[in-house]
Amino acid sequence: MHHLPPLDPAHRIDRRKLLISSAALAATAASGSTASVAASVADCRGKFSLGFSLYGMRELKTETAIQTLSKIGYDSVELCLLRGFDTDPAQLAAIRRRELRGALAQYNMCVRAMMEHLPLTTDEKKNQQTTERLKQAASLAHDLSVDAPPLIETVLGSGDWLEQRDRFAETLRQWSVLAEREDIQIAVKPHVNHAVDTPEKARWLMRQVNNDRIGLAYDYSHYASQAIDMDQSVRDLASHIHFVHVKDVVRESDQVRFALPGSTGQIDYPRLLKQLSENGYIGDVCAEVSSQIWRQPGYDPIAAAKESYRRMANAFHVAGIERHG
After folding, report:
1. pLDDT of residue 303
2. In order of start, what are the domains of the chain with their CATH numbers?
3. Nearest Cα to 48, choosing from 120, 140, 112, 121?
4. Which pLDDT belongs to residue 25?
5. How far apart (Å, rounded) are the C-alpha atoms in residues 43 and 3?
6. Tens of pLDDT, residues 148-202
7. pTM exceeds cut of 0.85
Protein backbone atom coordinates (compact mmCIF):
# COMPACT_ATOMS: atom_id res chain seq x y z
CA MET A 1 0.00 0.00 0.00
CA HIS A 2 1.29 3.46 -0.92
CA HIS A 3 1.10 6.26 1.66
CA LEU A 4 -0.14 9.45 0.03
CA PRO A 5 1.31 12.90 0.72
CA PRO A 6 -1.08 15.64 1.86
CA LEU A 7 -3.05 17.31 -0.91
CA ASP A 8 -1.38 20.48 -2.14
CA PRO A 9 -3.31 23.81 -1.97
CA ALA A 10 -4.41 23.59 -5.61
CA HIS A 11 -6.36 20.42 -4.84
CA ARG A 12 -7.41 21.13 -1.25
CA ILE A 13 -11.16 21.01 -0.65
CA ASP A 14 -12.88 24.25 0.33
CA ARG A 15 -13.70 24.08 4.09
CA ARG A 16 -17.35 25.00 3.65
CA LYS A 17 -17.81 22.40 0.89
CA LEU A 18 -16.07 19.81 3.03
CA LEU A 19 -18.39 20.48 5.96
CA ILE A 20 -21.42 20.26 3.69
CA SER A 21 -20.15 17.01 2.16
CA SER A 22 -19.41 15.52 5.59
CA ALA A 23 -22.84 16.48 6.86
CA ALA A 24 -24.50 14.94 3.82
CA LEU A 25 -22.55 11.72 4.29
CA ALA A 26 -23.49 11.55 7.96
CA ALA A 27 -27.14 12.15 7.20
CA THR A 28 -27.14 9.54 4.48
CA ALA A 29 -25.45 6.94 6.68
CA ALA A 30 -28.02 7.56 9.40
CA SER A 31 -31.05 7.44 7.13
CA GLY A 32 -29.96 4.86 4.59
CA SER A 33 -31.06 7.27 1.84
CA THR A 34 -28.89 7.59 -1.27
CA ALA A 35 -30.38 10.68 -2.85
CA SER A 36 -28.56 13.53 -1.09
CA VAL A 37 -25.04 12.35 -1.82
CA ALA A 38 -25.74 10.87 -5.23
CA ALA A 39 -26.91 14.26 -6.49
CA SER A 40 -23.50 15.77 -5.77
CA VAL A 41 -21.41 13.30 -7.77
CA ALA A 42 -19.74 15.00 -10.75
CA ASP A 43 -21.54 14.60 -14.07
CA CYS A 44 -19.38 14.60 -17.22
CA ARG A 45 -22.15 13.99 -19.74
CA GLY A 46 -21.77 15.96 -22.95
CA LYS A 47 -18.06 16.57 -22.36
CA PHE A 48 -14.73 14.90 -22.95
CA SER A 49 -13.06 13.58 -19.82
CA LEU A 50 -9.70 11.98 -19.14
CA GLY A 51 -9.95 8.95 -16.90
CA PHE A 52 -7.91 6.14 -15.42
CA SER A 53 -9.06 2.55 -15.03
CA LEU A 54 -8.72 1.04 -11.57
CA TYR A 55 -7.94 -2.23 -13.32
CA GLY A 56 -4.40 -0.87 -12.97
CA MET A 57 -4.71 -0.05 -9.24
CA ARG A 58 -5.70 -3.40 -7.77
CA GLU A 59 -3.66 -3.00 -4.57
CA LEU A 60 -5.15 0.38 -3.63
CA LYS A 61 -8.40 0.87 -1.75
CA THR A 62 -10.79 2.54 -4.16
CA GLU A 63 -11.30 5.67 -2.05
CA THR A 64 -7.50 6.12 -1.92
CA ALA A 65 -7.28 5.63 -5.69
CA ILE A 66 -10.01 8.22 -6.30
CA GLN A 67 -8.19 10.77 -4.12
CA THR A 68 -4.89 10.01 -5.86
CA LEU A 69 -6.30 10.36 -9.37
CA SER A 70 -8.01 13.62 -8.49
CA LYS A 71 -4.75 15.00 -7.14
CA ILE A 72 -2.90 13.98 -10.32
CA GLY A 73 -5.52 15.84 -12.39
CA TYR A 74 -7.83 13.19 -13.82
CA ASP A 75 -11.49 14.01 -14.43
CA SER A 76 -12.93 10.53 -14.15
CA VAL A 77 -12.40 6.95 -13.08
CA GLU A 78 -13.36 3.53 -14.36
CA LEU A 79 -14.12 1.16 -11.50
CA CYS A 80 -13.10 -2.47 -11.80
CA LEU A 81 -15.82 -4.94 -10.79
CA LEU A 82 -13.85 -8.13 -11.36
CA ARG A 83 -13.76 -10.71 -8.60
CA GLY A 84 -10.83 -10.05 -6.28
CA PHE A 85 -10.99 -6.29 -6.83
CA ASP A 86 -12.11 -3.76 -4.23
CA THR A 87 -15.38 -2.92 -6.00
CA ASP A 88 -16.72 -6.39 -6.80
CA PRO A 89 -20.46 -5.55 -6.50
CA ALA A 90 -21.20 -8.93 -4.91
CA GLN A 91 -19.04 -7.88 -1.96
CA LEU A 92 -20.11 -4.23 -1.56
CA ALA A 93 -22.46 -3.52 1.32
CA ALA A 94 -24.72 -0.46 1.30
CA ILE A 95 -22.52 1.54 3.66
CA ARG A 96 -19.47 0.96 1.46
CA ARG A 97 -21.39 2.13 -1.60
CA ARG A 98 -22.26 5.34 0.22
CA GLU A 99 -18.60 5.81 1.12
CA LEU A 100 -17.56 5.38 -2.52
CA ARG A 101 -20.20 7.84 -3.64
CA GLY A 102 -19.01 10.27 -1.00
CA ALA A 103 -15.40 9.97 -2.19
CA LEU A 104 -16.45 10.64 -5.79
CA ALA A 105 -18.36 13.72 -4.67
CA GLN A 106 -15.62 14.99 -2.37
CA TYR A 107 -12.93 14.80 -5.06
CA ASN A 108 -15.23 15.94 -7.89
CA MET A 109 -14.63 12.78 -9.92
CA CYS A 110 -16.95 11.37 -12.57
CA VAL A 111 -17.43 7.62 -12.75
CA ARG A 112 -18.23 6.95 -16.39
CA ALA A 113 -17.62 3.22 -16.70
CA MET A 114 -17.24 0.01 -14.75
CA MET A 115 -15.13 -2.86 -16.06
CA GLU A 116 -16.47 -6.39 -15.98
CA HIS A 117 -15.21 -9.60 -17.58
CA LEU A 118 -18.19 -11.52 -18.93
CA PRO A 119 -17.02 -13.84 -21.71
CA LEU A 120 -19.84 -15.67 -23.46
CA THR A 121 -19.95 -19.43 -23.42
CA THR A 122 -22.13 -22.37 -24.46
CA ASP A 123 -22.45 -23.27 -20.78
CA GLU A 124 -25.98 -22.14 -19.82
CA LYS A 125 -25.19 -22.07 -16.10
CA LYS A 126 -22.26 -19.71 -16.67
CA ASN A 127 -24.41 -17.48 -18.86
CA GLN A 128 -26.99 -17.28 -16.07
CA GLN A 129 -24.19 -16.24 -13.73
CA THR A 130 -23.21 -13.57 -16.25
CA THR A 131 -26.76 -12.22 -16.26
CA GLU A 132 -26.69 -12.03 -12.47
CA ARG A 133 -23.36 -10.17 -12.57
CA LEU A 134 -24.87 -7.66 -15.00
CA LYS A 135 -27.79 -7.06 -12.63
CA GLN A 136 -25.39 -6.55 -9.72
CA ALA A 137 -23.33 -4.12 -11.79
CA ALA A 138 -26.45 -2.20 -12.82
CA SER A 139 -27.51 -1.87 -9.19
CA LEU A 140 -24.09 -0.50 -8.26
CA ALA A 141 -24.15 1.91 -11.22
CA HIS A 142 -27.36 3.51 -9.94
CA ASP A 143 -26.14 3.52 -6.34
CA LEU A 144 -23.04 5.47 -7.39
CA SER A 145 -24.69 8.00 -9.69
CA VAL A 146 -28.45 8.35 -9.82
CA ASP A 147 -28.51 10.93 -12.63
CA ALA A 148 -25.70 9.53 -14.80
CA PRO A 149 -25.06 5.85 -14.01
CA PRO A 150 -21.78 4.58 -15.47
CA LEU A 151 -21.89 2.11 -18.32
CA ILE A 152 -20.75 -1.50 -17.96
CA GLU A 153 -17.79 -2.43 -20.16
CA THR A 154 -16.73 -6.00 -21.00
CA VAL A 155 -15.04 -8.21 -23.57
CA LEU A 156 -16.96 -11.07 -25.16
CA GLY A 157 -14.35 -13.82 -25.14
CA SER A 158 -12.55 -16.17 -27.48
CA GLY A 159 -13.59 -18.72 -30.07
CA ASP A 160 -14.08 -19.02 -33.80
CA TRP A 161 -15.91 -15.96 -35.13
CA LEU A 162 -18.08 -17.70 -37.70
CA GLU A 163 -19.08 -20.35 -35.19
CA GLN A 164 -19.75 -17.86 -32.37
CA ARG A 165 -21.22 -14.78 -34.03
CA ASP A 166 -24.89 -15.80 -34.07
CA ARG A 167 -24.73 -16.77 -30.40
CA PHE A 168 -22.94 -13.51 -29.58
CA ALA A 169 -25.65 -11.54 -31.37
CA GLU A 170 -28.49 -13.39 -29.62
CA THR A 171 -26.87 -12.92 -26.21
CA LEU A 172 -26.37 -9.21 -26.84
CA ARG A 173 -30.02 -8.88 -27.83
CA GLN A 174 -30.90 -10.46 -24.48
CA TRP A 175 -28.50 -8.05 -22.76
CA SER A 176 -30.23 -5.13 -24.50
CA VAL A 177 -33.54 -6.15 -22.91
CA LEU A 178 -31.83 -6.31 -19.51
CA ALA A 179 -30.19 -2.93 -20.16
CA GLU A 180 -33.55 -1.37 -20.99
CA ARG A 181 -35.07 -2.80 -17.84
CA GLU A 182 -32.17 -1.75 -15.61
CA ASP A 183 -31.72 1.63 -17.36
CA ILE A 184 -28.03 1.19 -18.15
CA GLN A 185 -25.72 0.99 -21.14
CA ILE A 186 -23.34 -1.86 -21.97
CA ALA A 187 -20.21 -1.44 -24.08
CA VAL A 188 -18.49 -4.51 -25.51
CA LYS A 189 -14.83 -4.32 -26.42
CA PRO A 190 -13.27 -5.91 -29.52
CA HIS A 191 -9.99 -7.47 -28.43
CA VAL A 192 -7.01 -8.83 -30.36
CA ASN A 193 -6.93 -12.66 -30.34
CA HIS A 194 -10.59 -12.80 -29.29
CA ALA A 195 -13.51 -13.82 -31.49
CA VAL A 196 -14.49 -10.17 -31.99
CA ASP A 197 -11.23 -8.47 -32.95
CA THR A 198 -11.88 -6.18 -35.94
CA PRO A 199 -14.12 -3.21 -36.78
CA GLU A 200 -15.89 -5.31 -39.42
CA LYS A 201 -16.95 -7.94 -36.87
CA ALA A 202 -17.93 -5.30 -34.33
CA ARG A 203 -20.12 -3.49 -36.88
CA TRP A 204 -21.81 -6.77 -37.83
CA LEU A 205 -22.72 -7.39 -34.20
CA MET A 206 -24.06 -3.87 -33.71
CA ARG A 207 -26.26 -4.23 -36.79
CA GLN A 208 -27.72 -7.48 -35.45
CA VAL A 209 -28.48 -6.00 -32.04
CA ASN A 210 -29.66 -2.59 -33.30
CA ASN A 211 -30.20 -1.12 -29.84
CA ASP A 212 -28.45 1.99 -28.46
CA ARG A 213 -28.26 0.35 -25.05
CA ILE A 214 -25.51 -1.86 -26.50
CA GLY A 215 -22.45 -0.12 -27.91
CA LEU A 216 -18.71 -0.50 -28.26
CA ALA A 217 -15.71 0.23 -26.10
CA TYR A 218 -13.10 1.46 -28.58
CA ASP A 219 -9.45 0.67 -27.89
CA TYR A 220 -7.21 1.37 -30.87
CA SER A 221 -4.34 -0.68 -29.43
CA HIS A 222 -6.24 -3.84 -30.37
CA TYR A 223 -6.54 -2.63 -33.96
CA ALA A 224 -3.04 -1.15 -34.16
CA SER A 225 -1.63 -4.58 -33.31
CA GLN A 226 -3.29 -5.83 -36.51
CA ALA A 227 -2.13 -2.86 -38.63
CA ILE A 228 -5.72 -1.58 -39.02
CA ASP A 229 -5.86 2.09 -40.00
CA MET A 230 -6.78 4.39 -37.12
CA ASP A 231 -8.82 6.96 -39.03
CA GLN A 232 -10.82 4.32 -40.87
CA SER A 233 -11.52 2.36 -37.67
CA VAL A 234 -12.94 5.47 -36.00
CA ARG A 235 -15.09 6.33 -39.01
CA ASP A 236 -16.36 2.75 -39.28
CA LEU A 237 -17.33 2.50 -35.61
CA ALA A 238 -18.12 6.10 -34.64
CA SER A 239 -21.89 5.71 -34.37
CA HIS A 240 -21.48 2.80 -31.93
CA ILE A 241 -18.65 4.05 -29.68
CA HIS A 242 -19.82 4.53 -26.07
CA PHE A 243 -16.44 4.51 -24.34
CA VAL A 244 -12.72 4.75 -25.19
CA HIS A 245 -9.68 3.05 -23.67
CA VAL A 246 -6.14 4.15 -24.52
CA LYS A 247 -2.86 2.28 -24.23
CA ASP A 248 0.13 1.57 -26.45
CA VAL A 249 0.95 -1.69 -28.17
CA VAL A 250 4.02 -3.28 -29.73
CA ARG A 251 3.92 -6.41 -31.87
CA GLU A 252 6.99 -8.58 -31.40
CA SER A 253 6.99 -11.55 -33.78
CA ASP A 254 3.70 -13.32 -32.95
CA GLN A 255 3.35 -11.70 -29.54
CA VAL A 256 1.38 -8.56 -28.66
CA ARG A 257 2.85 -6.46 -25.86
CA PHE A 258 0.82 -3.63 -24.34
CA ALA A 259 2.36 -0.51 -22.80
CA LEU A 260 1.32 2.70 -21.05
CA PRO A 261 -0.36 5.22 -23.38
CA GLY A 262 2.18 7.34 -25.23
CA SER A 263 5.18 5.40 -23.92
CA THR A 264 6.23 3.90 -27.27
CA GLY A 265 5.27 6.67 -29.67
CA GLN A 266 3.40 4.16 -31.83
CA ILE A 267 -0.03 5.83 -31.57
CA ASP A 268 -0.74 9.47 -32.47
CA TYR A 269 -3.11 10.38 -29.65
CA PRO A 270 -3.81 14.01 -30.68
CA ARG A 271 -4.88 12.66 -34.07
CA LEU A 272 -6.98 9.96 -32.43
CA LEU A 273 -8.74 12.54 -30.23
CA LYS A 274 -9.42 14.76 -33.23
CA GLN A 275 -10.80 11.82 -35.20
CA LEU A 276 -13.10 10.86 -32.34
CA SER A 277 -14.33 14.43 -31.95
CA GLU A 278 -14.81 15.04 -35.67
CA ASN A 279 -16.81 11.80 -35.94
CA GLY A 280 -19.18 12.76 -33.15
CA TYR A 281 -17.74 11.10 -30.06
CA ILE A 282 -17.92 13.09 -26.82
CA GLY A 283 -17.17 11.01 -23.76
CA ASP A 284 -14.52 9.41 -21.64
CA VAL A 285 -10.98 8.67 -22.79
CA CYS A 286 -9.67 6.29 -20.18
CA ALA A 287 -6.06 5.16 -19.70
CA GLU A 288 -5.93 1.41 -19.15
CA VAL A 289 -2.93 -0.45 -17.75
CA SER A 290 -2.74 -3.97 -19.12
CA SER A 291 -2.34 -6.90 -16.74
CA GLN A 292 0.86 -7.59 -18.71
CA ILE A 293 2.17 -4.51 -16.90
CA TRP A 294 0.51 -4.47 -13.49
CA ARG A 295 1.32 -8.11 -12.80
CA GLN A 296 5.03 -7.42 -13.15
CA PRO A 297 7.13 -7.29 -9.94
CA GLY A 298 7.78 -3.73 -8.81
CA TYR A 299 4.83 -2.21 -10.68
CA ASP A 300 3.91 1.18 -9.18
CA PRO A 301 0.27 2.12 -9.91
CA ILE A 302 0.66 5.76 -8.89
CA ALA A 303 3.71 6.24 -11.10
CA ALA A 304 1.82 4.60 -13.98
CA ALA A 305 -1.15 6.93 -13.45
CA LYS A 306 1.10 10.00 -13.38
CA GLU A 307 2.95 9.00 -16.53
CA SER A 308 -0.29 8.21 -18.37
CA TYR A 309 -1.82 11.51 -17.28
CA ARG A 310 1.14 13.58 -18.43
CA ARG A 311 1.08 12.10 -21.91
CA MET A 312 -2.69 12.06 -22.39
CA ALA A 313 -3.25 15.54 -20.92
CA ASN A 314 -0.67 16.80 -23.40
CA ALA A 315 -2.48 14.97 -26.22
CA PHE A 316 -5.71 16.81 -25.35
CA HIS A 317 -3.77 20.09 -25.32
CA VAL A 318 -2.12 19.44 -28.70
CA ALA A 319 -5.46 18.36 -30.18
CA GLY A 320 -7.09 21.54 -28.87
CA ILE A 321 -9.91 19.59 -27.21
CA GLU A 322 -11.35 20.89 -23.95
CA ARG A 323 -11.92 18.46 -21.10
CA HIS A 324 -14.49 18.42 -18.32
CA GLY A 325 -13.38 20.60 -15.43
Report:
1. 98
2. 14-319 (3.20.20.150)
3. 112
4. 38
5. 29
6. 999 999 999 999 999 999 999 999 999 999 999 999 999 999 999 999 999 999 9
7. yes
- The 3-class SS string of the chain reads CCCCCCCCHHHCCCHHHHHHHHHHHHHHHHHCCCHHHHCCCCCCCCCEEEEEEHHHCCCCCHHHHHHHHHHHCCCEEEEECCCCCCCCHHHCCHHHHHHHHHHHHHCCCEEEEEECCCCCCCCHHHHHHHHHHHHHHHHHHHHHCCCCCCEEEECCCCCCHHHHHHHHHHHHHHHHHHHHHHCCCEEECCCCCCCCCCHHHHHHHHHHHCCCCEEEEEECHHHHCCCCCHHHHHHHHHHHEEEEEECEEEEECCEEEEECCCCCCCCCHHHHHHHHHHCCCCCEEEECCCHHHHCCCCCCHHHHHHHHHHHHHHHHHHHCCCECC
* Tens-place pLDDT, residues 267-281: 999 999 999 999 999
What is the C-alpha to C-alpha distance for residues 43 and 110, in angstroms, rounded to an integer?
Answer: 6
What is the C-alpha separation between 239 and 233, in angstroms, rounded? Answer: 11
